Amino acid sequence: xxxDGLGVTALATLLLVVAPAARQEIxxxxxxxxxxxxxxxxxxxxxxxxxxxxxAPEMDTExxxxxxxxxxxxxxxxxAR
Length: 81
Hints:
By secondary structure, the protein is α+β, with helices and mostly antiparallel strands. It is about 35% helix and about 20% strand. It contains 3 helices and 4 strands. It has helices at about 5-15, 20, 60-75, and strands spanning about 30-40, 40-45, 45-50, 80. The protein has a 4-stranded antiparallel β-sheet. A hairpin with a 2-residue loop joins strand 2 (about 40-45) and strand 3.
C-alpha cells in the first residue's frame, strides 16, 4: 500500500514535470494519451518521458512493481500535454 504522503509527493512531481519545458523554447508540443512504462516513465505517442526528480525502484523488485502500479492508477490512459 502506498503512503498518502508519497502519493501527494508523486502527484505534485507529475504535475511539475512540465516546469523544465516552460523554461526552454520548445519547437513542438507533446500532447496525447499517456501510457505508463514504469514507476518513473510515461510514454505519449512515440515520446518516452522520464519524470523529473523521480527515481523509482527497478521493475524487477517488489518496490518497483508497487511504484508502477501507483503510476498506472495515477496516469494511465490520461490526456497529457
